[in-house]
Amino acid sequence: MLQGAKILVPIDLSESGRAALAEADALAASTNGEITLLHVQSVTELHVMDFAYQEPPEQTARVRQAIEDAVATIASELRTPRERVSIELPIGDATHEIVDRSSRHDLIVMGTHGRTGVSHFLLGSVTERVVRAARCSVLVVKPRDAADAR
To answer: Is 82 helix (H, G, I), strand (E, B) or coil?
Structure first.
């Protein structure tokens, strides 16, 4: 079923994201699958009353370059052959960008930060929203320390 699957791996450069990537890489390498690494850069914008502050373009460009370098390094370390790995670095809302791409993939493999309580209520969960809205299956990988704690 997953032979030659197109796997979307949203990564946020966290340990949770790296754990999910390791699972996706093992799966793609063993099934002749393809991996799309997706890192969504959000735009920092702050609104206070009638005043809006947006991150300066120079800062956005510096962050963008650092992200490109980090994701390229991660891609070079995968077991999946380079010709079956692609990288996408859109700017926008993570949930929207992941769900938008879900119809072009067979599987999404992503991590979860395991937030609970107030932080989950206030920050929400990109993973949770993706699971609800994706047009393909989603494999959620918990960080090792969360699994070991049980």
So the answer is: helix
pTM score: 0.86
Average pLDDT over the chain, rounded to an integer: 87
Task: List the one residue out of 8, 10, 24 whose CA is nearest residue 112.
Answer: 10
List Cβ neighbours of 134 (8 Å cut-off, separation of 6 or more).
98, 99, 102, 108
| CA–CA dist 104, 95 (Å, integer) | 15
**Site of tokens 């005043």:** 51
Q: Which long-range contacts (CB under 8 A, 24 or more apart) does 144-150 make?
A: 144/19, 146/114
Domain ranges of the chain: 6-149
Instruction: Please say whether the beta carbons of 87 and 70 come within 8 A.
Output: no
What per-residue confidence (pLDDT) applies to 11? 94
Domain 6-149 CATH class label: alpha beta
Cβ atoms of 111 and 14 within 8 Å: the answer is yes
